[in-house]
Every structure is written in structure tokens, then in C-alpha cells.
Write a structure and sequence with these properties.
The protein is mainly beta. It has one domain. 10% of the residues lie in helices and 41% in strands. Strands 1, 2, 3, 4, 5, 6, 9, 10, 11, 12, 13 and 14 form a twelve-stranded mixed sheet that branches. A two-stranded antiparallel sheet has the order 7-8. A hairpin with a 2-residue loop joins strand 12 and strand 13. The longest helix has 12 residues. The protein is globular.
Length: 213
Amino acid sequence: MIALACLLLFADTPLTLTATDDKPPAVSAELAKSLDAKGLRVSVGDDAAMTFWFRTSLPATATAAQVRNGLTYRELPEGSFVGVVSFAKGFTDYRKQEIAAGDYTLRLGLQPSIGDHAGTSPHPDFLMLLPLADDTTIDPLDGKTLLKFSAKVTGGDHPSVMMLYPHPAKPAYAKLASKPGVIVLTFTRPVTSDDGPATLGFALVVRGHSASR
């Protein structure tokens, strides 16, 4: 059962978070069987804005010490499949790129610290959006393939991205929270590793953009 905290005001617009039994978008059988049955829906006022279905469990490469001390995004392989999102309306991502309404997969990506990427975000971890038609495997995607597919979403040279803030694994319930200039959806996911089960916390930007763009 998903427990969650529901209401947050941002720029005088109420955002609400609810659990939903709606089925996720039609993805490959391999991806579909990895997803939670319940989704998380972020609404603006009375209108649904986006709905997420996250992976039931994420495989990680972590030592026993890392499991004890708390996992970070870096213990997941880059390109890991994390879930899917359905945008009821157009969405503006963290880079201020316009994303068309529709359905996308979400995979973990790492922002380079060089060139025009330097200083554009407070944290380098992102979930990248990929077209459903191009993303069918549960296996992590290599960096080149990840960037190629994600750039298709905007039709430009850069991937389409939702930034991640670090987040502790507790509390376990999902909620909306504010960070400087943005709103994040916080949630946790079970993680499996050779050194035992663990939990990883996520804080995903669902409203707001890079201050430098």
C-alpha cells in the first residue's frame, strides 16, 4: 500500500499527490512485469498533470557498508530503468525543454561536469525520458544509447531530464516537498544487491527549472 502526503502550494497553484489504480502505459512485457500495480499522480488543481509507475525493485551494486550506511543513486548502474511517466499535458523539463503530452520511460542518467553542463544544476543525477517505442529492455542502457534515445523526446541535441535531489530512505511514504525554486516528489524504492536488501530514497523535480537556463 502506498502512503503519501497530499498537498503543496507552489506559486499559488495547488499541487496534489494521490495514488491511482490506473494501469501503466503499454510497454514491453519485460518492462511491464517490473512495475508496481499502483501509480502516483501529481495534479494541478483538479487536473492530472503527470502519473508515475515505478519499478517494484531496483538492482544495485553496493557493498555491505554502503547498504548499512544508506544507498545513493551512484549505487545504481547508469542507464537503469526506474519506471514510466504519463504526462496528461505538455511538460517543461529541468532544462526548460518542452515535452509533449504522452508516455515515456524513465532511466537514471548522470550529467557531465564539463562544457555547457557545468554549473547548470545543484546535483548531477537525473531521470531521463525516453520514447516507449525505443525502450524495451529491463537491462541498463549504455550512455551513448541513453543520450540518443532521450534526445528524441525534444528533437534536439540534449536529453530530456527530470533532476534528482539526494533523499534519505525515510520516511517511506511518498509526498511532495519544496526545494529551492522547485517542487520534488519524494518516494522510496526497494533495492536488491549481493550484500542484502536495502531501500533507496528519491526526490524527483516535478515543477521548476535550472536557474541558469
